[in-house]
Amino acid sequence: MHTVGIDMVEIERIRHCMKNDRFCKRILGEEEYRQLEKRGMPIQSVAASFCAKEAFSKAMGTGIRDFSLAEVQLLRLPNGKPYLFFTGRAKAMVQPTGLEFSVSITHTRQFAAAVVVASREVET
């Protein structure tokens, strides 16, 4: 079984939101914030993180409810490969489903986008 979620956002929208000091603290998890802060908090990367959270909620079929955006973190392995890490209510929501998630992100100067694929082996 597979489900897919996709999201895209204008970089300018995120730039405007980041003028509010609380925005990043509200949408980014602790480790996600640290990783982005080490890289200078690039707007395109913050936008990609935002998109990944939205795409995750679409792949789950729930929309953003019953968890906060900061509980779904877009983290990167040392080689740069992105992955989703869950905490709090998001983790509690994901665990019983048995779903595994793959995420792909991209951005230009104008847009950021993310695709999340949720998959689970179906018993026959």
TrEMBL record:
Positions annotated to bind Mg(2+): 7, 54
Reaction catalysis annotation: apo-[ACP] + CoA = holo-[ACP] + adenosine 3',5'-bisphosphate + H(+)
UniProt-listed Enzyme Commission number(s): 2.7.8.7
GO CC term, one of those recorded: cytoplasm
Annotated signal peptide: none
Family classification: Belongs to the P-Pant transferase superfamily. AcpS family.
Listed name of the protein: Holo-[acyl-carrier-protein] synthase
Gene, per the UniProt record: acpS
